[in-house]
Amino acid sequence: xxxxxxxxxxxxxxxxxxxxxxxxxxxxxxxxxxxxxxxxxxxxxxxxxxxxxxxxxxxxxxxxxxxxxxxxxxxxxxxxxxxxxxxxxxxxxxxxxxxxxxxxxxxxxxxxxxxxxxxxxxxxxxxxxxxxxxxxxxxxxxxxxxxxxxxxxxxxxxxxxxxxxxxxxxxxxxxxxxxxxxxxxxxxxxxxxxxxxxxxxxxxxxxxxxxxxxxxxxxxxxxxxxxxxxxxxxxxxxxxxxxxxxxxxxxxxxxxxxxxxxxxxxxxxxxxxxxxxxxxxxxxxxxxxxxxxxxxxxxxxxxxxxxxxxxxxxxxxxxxxxxxxxxxxxxxxxxxxxxxxxxxxxxxxxxxxxxxxxxxxxxxxxxxxxxxxxxxxxxxxxxxxxxxxx
Length: 390
Ligand code: RFL
Ligand code: PHB
Description:
An eight-stranded mixed β-sheet has the order 6-5-14-15-16-13-17-20, sandwiched between helices. The protein has a six-stranded mixed β-sheet with strand order 8-2-1-12-19-18. A three-stranded antiparallel β-sheet has the order 3-7-4. The chain is 38% helix and 28% strand. The mean pLDDT is 97. The protein is built from 13 helices and 20 strands.
């Protein structure tokens, strides 16, 4: 088989890249290790920046997003027993975010790819990028016990943090930066109305809590938990009791509880690999970087990466110019590092660390107080949260 761009991974990065390239008349084949149902069952992010929404519009898959997505103008920060609203729309001169689950983004992109008759090979084993340091890269894989090979012009490694693309790069060609946080997030999904119309980020002496949602009748709640904790230790009752302890009285009074329909623990880490291009292979999304979810940036960074990459490839094929692909890594990384900084800062300000002493706790509270009383600080938070320009 031959194609122009072989994409490894059918998560949001790979699927969105596939649709953008299709729009620009560039051929792709996507190779995905799992089956479609598995990919769709992964409950992850839920908050889209305007830039991500714009990309969904560009590829013509935003109809359901606009019908079902919830546009939010602000968030609430809870600390010291009270809640404080940040009006992000006002602070940024009109920018908002949209609540729409990653599962829905993935489903819309998968449906569009299938409708366009584009090739996706699911359950592809032993996917291996080859010869990307030459002008004739290839990707081999096994399907139903038979080995196949795709010859291509470029490989896009969109295969997430544990993918094969970054792994395939010689250690001497890559530099990595990371931070592992000493806690995780225990998340549950429940078929209950959200406690409040906007997200609540709560800094509490017992640990961080986040109230978010997927729709007006489906809630998602997170609790900071210890790294060695296990979901089996958390009955629904225990989860709701602990959440109530970390919220203000008004929120507790409004909280509607119900059975969980999903429960999982995710570790928190910051990670960046540099560069994001190795000859004729590019990395995009979680394959190149990870952020702790506190700033809601993971999915949105995957989207901005593939925007930069699709523009670079469009320039390569349309204008026969390598300038775009040569600039891809630096351009993407500049935005990635700003989101890394923001996510790290939000995490540091809102979580209880093992070494959080009284001094650190006072500093966190002072920072939060400053945020909600200074227009400059509110604006800084808001422009980062709603998404820095591409
Ligand atoms: P994905 O979504 O991980 O998709 C990568 C795809 O590549 C496939 N793959 C392979 N295919 C072929 N061969 C191989 N060798 C392969 N290895 C892997 C995988 O099966 C998969 O389908 O990466 P992508 O597309 O870059 O998208 C990034 C986002 O998914 C990610 O940034 C966010 O979901 C991160 N994230 C969250 N972000 C938020 O903004 N808010 C959240 O609340 C939030 N929660 C989460 C998260 C990530 C989590 N992970 C990764 C464990 C919760 C979790 C649990
Ligand atoms: C979510 O809806 O899952 C979500 C929203 C905001 C975050 C993290 C997760 O910061």
